[in-house]
């Protein structure tokens, strides 16, 4: 990483303190492919990368940027609507102290899970524990640049977003090649996930996180890949049941931590029922397809990733899903707006730019 060698520490510290007094804060995002903005593109051995067309076709210049989508992620939209800058990927070579100070950092990694063992078949990915470890490195770096007091204030005033859990099911528990699939029942696996998440969120609190939102899971049994694996082409209700169970227990955890940890405002954000309704009644939301991905390789299914050889649907704004796993830009926007509504967060930016 291209850390700046000789920053003006005093100037940065003064600017930081003035900025925080004005309410200028940044985000630190932890997550998986639903929030990744390029980290996995720098993990050259990773099998989970969004480095080829047609990823990013509706974002900026239309080139792949590491987002597993045609456009924006849910985290992009949520931050935009809150008037917050978009944090760059941790592995972005241009990341330096000034960039961190102005924009924060995104540690999200495609394939990442709450559990360390999740998505090991992808070879390279950052689990949540690894992302927290990288965050600790960022903290040490900023303390060296602007001093402990200014850095601690900076990190204490930040917004923290954690959005993980789907891979722990899709790329772990539900695949018999992973030992977790035959070590646990559905109920005990969810409890294992939630207890691990509790330790991780408590660790983040000790590191300074005070305002944190955990994004719950959507109806992951309805992603195109899961539908394809059923004989009827319908949603996998057993998979959706796991998502709902996790959401219920995670919401209880966030409420308990917010009440018990000093000065903590830990919140649970989700749009499960809303997303399910989009899938069940796509026409009511302006879509005409909620079953198949927009990006496909002709009649070949499943195509686990979008490639230059893939064919795109005629109108990307009419499809709920971009590829076998991930929603489109338009679906992400609607999910983000519903999440903000349920959290009673005021939208300060109504723009829709990429």
TrEMBL record:
Leader sequence segment: 1-23
Keyword Translocase: no
Alphabetical UniProt keywords: Hydrolase, Lipid degradation, Lipid metabolism, Signal
Presence of the UniProt keyword Transferase in the record: no
Pfam family of the protein (one): Lipase_GDSL
GO biological process, one term: lipid catabolic process
GO molecular function ontology, one term from the record: hydrolase activity, acting on ester bonds
InterPro entries, alphabetized: GDSL, GDSL_Est/Lipase, SGNH_hydro_sf, SGNH_plant_lipase-like
Entry similarity comment: Belongs to the 'GDSL' lipolytic enzyme family.
PANTHER family: GDSL LIPASE/ACYLHYDROLASE FAMILY PROTEIN (AFU_ORTHOLOGUE AFUA_4G14700), ZINC FINGER PROTEIN
Name by which UniProt lists this protein: GDSL esterase/lipase
């Amino acid at each position: 990483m291209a850390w700046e060698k000789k920053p003006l520490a005093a100037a940065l510290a003064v600017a930081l303190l003035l900025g925080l007094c004005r309410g200028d804060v940044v985000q630190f995002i932890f997550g998986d492919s639903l929030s990744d903005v390029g980290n996995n593109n720098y993990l050259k051995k990773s099998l989970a990368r969004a480095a080829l067309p047609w990823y990013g076709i509706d974002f900026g210049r239309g080139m792949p940027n590491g987002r597993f989508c045609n456009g924006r992620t849910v985290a992009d939209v949520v931050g935009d609507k809150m008037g917050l800058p978009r944090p760059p990927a941790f592995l972005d070579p241009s990341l330096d102290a000034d960039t961190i100070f102005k924009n924060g950092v995104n540690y999200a990694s495609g394939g990442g899970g709450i559990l360390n063992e999740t998505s090991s078949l992808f070879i390279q990915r950052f689990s949540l524990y690894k992302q927290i470890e990288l965050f600790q490195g960022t903290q040490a770096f900023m303390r060296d640049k602007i001093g402990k007091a200014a850095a601690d204030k900076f990190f204490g005033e930040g917004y923290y977003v954690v959005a993980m859990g789907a891979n722990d099911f899709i790329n772990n528990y539900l695949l018999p090649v992973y030992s977790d699939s035959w070590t646990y029942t559905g109920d005990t696996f969810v409890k294992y996930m939630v207890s691990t998440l509790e330790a991780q969120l408590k660790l983040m609190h000790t590191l300074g996180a005070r305002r944190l939102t955990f994004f719950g899971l959507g109806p992951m049994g309805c992603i195109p890949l899961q539908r394809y694996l059923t004989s009827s082409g319908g949603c996998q209700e057993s998979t959706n049941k796991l998502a709902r169970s996790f959401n219920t227990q995670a919401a209880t955890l966030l409420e308990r931590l917010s009440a018990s940890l000093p000065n903590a405002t830990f919140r649970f954000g989700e749009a499960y029922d809303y997303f399910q309704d989009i899938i069940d009644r796509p026409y009511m939301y302006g879509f005409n397809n909620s079953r198949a991905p927009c990006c496909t390789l002709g009649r070949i299914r499943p195509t686990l990733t979008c490639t230059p050889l893939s064919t795109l649907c005629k109108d990307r704004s009419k499809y709920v899903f971009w590829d076998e796993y991930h929603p489109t830009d338009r679906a992400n926007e609607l999910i983000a707006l519903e999440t903000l509504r349920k959290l009673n967060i005021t939208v300060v930016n109504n723009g829709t730019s990429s």
